[in-house]
Amino acid sequence: WSSGEATKPFNAVLPFERLFVGETDGSSFPNGGLRATHTAAAFTTWDRSSPCFVSDNVLRIPCAFVTHLGAAIDDKTPLLRSTDAVNRQGLRLLRAINIGMDAKAIHPYLGWEQEFFVIKAEYYRARPDLVACGRTLIGKLPTRNQQGELNYFAPPPSTVNLLLENIRAAMLRIGVAMAVMHNEVAPGQHEMSPVYCQASFSCDNNAMFMEVATKEAEKLGLAVLFHEKPFAGINGSGKHNNWSLGTDTGLNFFYPGKADKARELFVTAIASLAYGLCQHNELVRCAVASAGNDHRLGAQEAPPAIISLYPGTGFESHVDSIIAGGPLLGYGAERTSVDPGATAAMPANTGIEDRNRTAPFPFCGNRFEFRAVGSSQNCSFPIAICNTVMASGMAHISSLIEGGMSHRDAVAKVINMK
């Protein structure tokens, strides 16, 4: 302003504050009536649990998105709030049962399995129903449908394999290591999965994955279909959310371990989850309800639309023992091996429990797999609901113990709910 010029000189700068907090028009986003043109202010604020990155020469900063009054109008904010709830109630539970007293934080973790179909872009554009609706509405079922089920163990077609490799390289450039890529069961169906990591970061990675996959497919004349049921008569696509909770000291709530304390925590954690799923079953179902996913649930290999927990037959027997007055300890969480009965093949190590691909919420050895999540969904909301119902269960058990009930009796009371 000290310049004598009528048009003052200026330097182009980026105020650092804009990297942390921004303001925009909340009424121009889907907001469920929380914003209107006369009440439009909405704010982004950096999610510090998820690192920023550069993609296509643009700095991407993961953010929470809230209105002028603090209401969430995004998927990220409920996830962050649920993370706080899990941390708060988890630490409370550990204190109540006198386990892991040195823990200072509890984090939810997520490993997603993204399924999708790949077809030639020219075939995609030739189908107005596929373009407009994401799924075919007319046509004739192929004679053999999926009866052969030959796709799963077969190598990906060369063009698709190139696509998967390009996606993996593009994801690695933004700091996301993809650990798995393979065919899925249905013809033209494939899957990719990353290294398991903290939930907020993992949800952001999946949103980027879908963007990257779409862009990379276009370069090769292909189209990636994320609709849950693009074709009738064959498997649909899901996004199985492998979810767990762990402390900053290395305790996994869903891994029985070898020490007595770890096994007591495991039994208590499953009781907490069972309580949350029982009390808030409709909420969990709503977390995976969409026009696309409701075509998939209950069809072919997908889990049914009824939400249930499957901890395994061995653990169910242990639950019966606890209800009958037995101790929390006693679950034989030991891995075994199965002998193929041939000298040329060595025995294979098995999981703690058999694999259940039907249940929407089966136990997978050190985590639970929320199988009902749809392939086009943002993982944030389903995981927010998982965190929330778990926090509810942990709070309930903590209240019982704090009220004078023993640890064993509190768990028995919760798992014997009617």
Question: Any overview of this molecule?
Answer:
- The protein has helices spanning 76-97, 121-125, 128-133, 158-173, 199-219, 260-279, 281-286, 293-296, 313-323, 380-402, 407-415, and strands at residues 21-25, 41-46, 53-55, 58-60, 63-67, 106-120, 178-183, 189-194, 197-198, 222-225, 239-247, 309-310, 337-338, 348-349, 361-362, 368-370.
- With 418 residues, it is of the alpha+beta class.
- Strands 6, 7, 8, 9, 10, 11 and 16 form a seven-stranded antiparallel sheet that branches.
- A hairpin with a 2-residue loop joins strand 3 (53-55) and strand 4.
- Helix 4 crosses helix 5 (199-219).
- The radius of gyration is 24 Å and the shape is globular.
- It starts with 20 loop residues before the first strand and ends with a helix.
- The relative contact order is 0.14.
- The mean pLDDT is 92.
Number of strands: 16
- Between the first and last Cα atoms, what is the distance in angstroms? 75 Å
The residue-averaged pLDDT reads 92
Order of helices and strands: EEEEEHEHHHEEEHEEHHHEHEEEEHH
Q: Main β-sheet: number of strands, strand sense, barrel status?
A: 7 strands, antiparallel
The percent range for helix content is 25-40%
Strand content: 15-25%
Alpha-carbon Rg, integer: 24 Å
Which blocks of ≥5 consecutive residues have pLDDT under 50? none
Tell the overall outline.
globular
Summing up helix and strand content along with how strands pair, one would put the structural category as alpha+beta
Number of helices: 11
Main attributes of the structure:
11 helices; alpha+beta; 7-stranded antiparallel sheet; single chain; about 35% helix; 3-stranded antiparallel sheet; about 425 residues
